[in-house]
Amino acid sequence: MQTQTLTVDAHAPQAAVLTAAADVIQRGGLVAFPTETVYGLGADALNPVAVAGIFAAKGRPASDPLIVHLADLDQLELVVAELPPSLAQLHDLVPGPLTLVLPRHARVPLSVSAGRDTVAVRVPAHAVAVGLIRAAATPIAAPSANRFGHTSPTTAAHVLADLAGRIDLVLDGGPTPVGIESTVLDLTSPTPRILRPGGVSLAQLQARLGAVEVAPRAATGAGAPDAGAAPTDTGAAAPGMLERHYAPEHELRLVCGAPDPARAWLAAQVVALTEQGVTVGVLLCAEDIARLQPLLSAHTALIEALGSEADLAQIAHNLYAALRRLDARAPQVILARDFGAEGLGLALRDRLTRAASGNVTWLGDGPA
């Protein structure tokens, strides 16, 4: 298969481009397109054959559900069996980086939801994504447009690096603004529950809903089932919940803790590894680089900057692109630290922990 690329204006997408992409969707094909979070790999959510194509192209297991993208909340009735009253409190966060787990309508193929009676839905805040859904006249199922388990794509070039020759079309709308995936909120549980942290914070949800739980795996990035969970023949409740996800090709080691102890851990690792002849890459914020630059230079560490720790939105925007750049420089080991659990910090911790495949050192009061 030859993958075609079409450039599209991210803010005012050309009608001809959207029509061409919609034709691919309507024929059961696969289109990668930008959203505000990451690039998605889209297919007609109501066509089981097209949905199967997503899993085949990515090498994605059937146990990992997909998110159904809608043009607006009016389309919920196409894919959702029942709307909970709590949905009304979230309207000001939609469109945006928020995915809601709701009761699945029977017309949605079970393959979309990994065999569950729920479906994950969201309305993206991106003109290209919404325009494509409207032009295709169908909800679009779309996970991230990369090989399964690998670092998510925030540019069309990232998509092509992973999926060229495996999908029909890529819409190149430039870099995605948010840079990490949506928050997944389960509204079918007695208390609303975050299954995956993302672009909408816990505090934002609590301000609208009151009590909101955070699933243990969402709080730590750990991949084991929640304590007390019953065995099931169905797949995961939400995408991105496996222990290894978003991962680079090379080994990533993560430290979680306060900034100063974490920097000391990073420095000790750089020294120990380089003295063993290991090529080390470091994924650091501007403040880390300022503190550690002499040591990093002396030990010829490969550095990729994420931006200032004072602006976690900037770090989230840069995370996947910086990780891909560093991975391409072929260090034997990549070192990184987390940025706490407040606001976007929780989502960054989740992504980095899974990218490290559980290879995490917790300092202070973190998990053992």
Which descriptors apply to this entry?
2 domains; Rossmann fold; 368 residues; alpha/beta; single chain; five-stranded parallel sheet; 32% helix
Please tell me about this protein's structure.
With 368 residues, this protein is of the alpha/beta class. The chain has two domains: 4-220, Alpha-Beta Complex (DHBP synthase); 251-362, 3-Layer(aba) Sandwich (Rossmann fold), CATH 3.40.50. The chain is built from eleven helices and 16 strands. An eleven-stranded mixed β-sheet has the order 1-8-2-3-7-4-6-5-9-10-11, with helices on both faces. Strands 14-13-15-12-16 form a five-stranded parallel β-sheet, sandwiched between helices. α1 (15-26) packs across α4 (127-136) and α8 (259-275) packs parallel to α9 (286-298). The longest helix is centred in the last third of the chain and has 17 residues, at 259-275. The termini are far apart.
Order of helices and strands: EHEEHEHEEHEHEEEHEHEHEHEHEHE
* CATH C-level label of the largest domain: Alpha Beta
Low-confidence residue ranges: 223-232
Please identify the structural class as seen in this structure: alpha/beta
Annotation field: number of helices: 11
- The percentage helix is 25-40%
The radius of gyration is 20 Å
Query: In CATH, what is the homologous superfamily of the largest domain?
Result: DHBP synthase
Strand content: 15-25%
